[in-house]
Structure formats: structure tokens, C-alpha cells
């Protein structure tokens, strides 16, 4: 199933959400992502302050350490995946692998990063790590997520393949990957797929999705040159 045959042809005025609404959706998602590890840090600090729980001091310190690491991983990922708060204009495949692995390591799904010694522009990097994260997220019961990159002529292909029991994308995610406005369901499940579609569109590319029982595949086709249209 092709998600968007020519996303770049859609006038900006016809996008399903405007800039202010888009910012609100992204801010809500980031707050949702950050609240769990932030709350765990506070729980660990409360245990340290509790005179009756000093026998749990090591557990509290472990919880704080693990949750703080999760917070840092989320921030590093979000700076590239959702924002422009980085001075880097080029990213190596190894750097991007680290950003995705920081969020996905320890989960039920394994990530096989077959990117190699590639260099990506900012908008290509944004597309790749969002696509990779959504590929892993399509495996709630575990499985193998494979991310590959190839260049053909002046085209760059970013491909994520998820295989495993109950591999799937939630209905909200499919709506987002089509570049459509969410009319029902959870906005938190919609915004990142929509952001991936929008990023591919702004890069002058397209996004494709294939899904069958036990397998989900995402592919972004972008202009392969290092200079990409500026993201607004």
C-alpha cells in the first residue's frame, strides 16, 4: 500500500494541521514521554528521603540512575527527531544508531541496524530515526526490526522491516503515515507517524507502507543529495 504517491504536491495550506496545532501535538507527546522517567526519578528520591526505607537505598539509587539515563536518551533522540536544537548539519549512521538504540535497547524487539558508514543531512537523519523507531514500535510482542539504507542514482531509500508475532501498526499510526488528520483514537499514537510523513514531504520525498500478518515494512524515498530543502 502506498501511503503517499506525491506528498510534496500537497499545498501547505491543505495540510491537515497548521503549525501551532502541530507544535501543540508534539509538545504533548514529549511531555507524555518524559513524565514516566521523571516520575520514577522523583519516586527514587522519595525513597532516599524516607527514614523507614533506608534498606531500599540501593534500589532507589538504581531506579534514579536508570530513569535519568532514559530521560537523557529521550532528550538526545527528540533533539534530532522533532527539533532543530542542534548545530550539526551532518550525522553519521553510527550517531543515529546510538539515538535509536538509546530508546529501544532492553525492549522486546531487537534492532538490526544495517546502515553502514553513511552520512546524512539533518532532514534525512530526522526521517531515518523516526522511521527506525516506528519500525521497532510495530513489534509490541517482540521480533526483529531491520533498518537498511541504499542509494540508487539520485534517490535515497530508508527501509524499516518489522517481523514478529502480532507485528502491527495501530490505526492512528496508519492515519498519520497517510498524512491524514486524526478524527478518532489517541493523538499520541498519531503524531509521530504524521511527523514522519510530513518530514518526508518536506524533504521532497514520499513514504510507503506494506503490512501483512506478522510483518510491517516502511520505506521513505528521498532525494539522495546531501543538500535538502530547508524544513520549516
Per-chain topology:
Elements: H1 19-49, H2 57-81, E1 90-92, H3 93-104, E2 109-114, E3 119-121, H4 122-137, E4 143-152, E5 155-163, H5 171-177, H6 187-202, E6 206-212, E7 215-223
Parallel strand pairs: 2-4
Antiparallel strand pairs: 1-3, 4-5, 5-7, 6-7
Summary of the model, kept short:
By secondary structure, this protein is of the alpha+beta class. The chain is 46% helix and 20% strand.
Unreliable segments of 5+ consecutive residues: 4-9, 226-232
Strand content: 15-25%
Number of helices: 6
* Major sheet characteristics: 5 strands, mixed
Protein name: Histidine phosphotransferase family protein
Domain Histidine phosphotransferase ChpT C-terminal: 94-213
Organism: Brevundimonas olei
InterPro entries: ChpT_C (IPR018762), HATPase_C_sf (IPR036890)
Detailed description of the structure:
It comes from Brevundimonas olei. It is a single chain. With 232 residues, the chain is of the alpha+beta class. 46% of the residues lie in helices and 20% in strands. Strand 4 and strand 5 form a beta hairpin. The longest helix is centred in the N-terminal third of the chain and has 31 residues, at 19-49. The model is unreliable at 4-9 and 226-232 (pLDDT under 50).
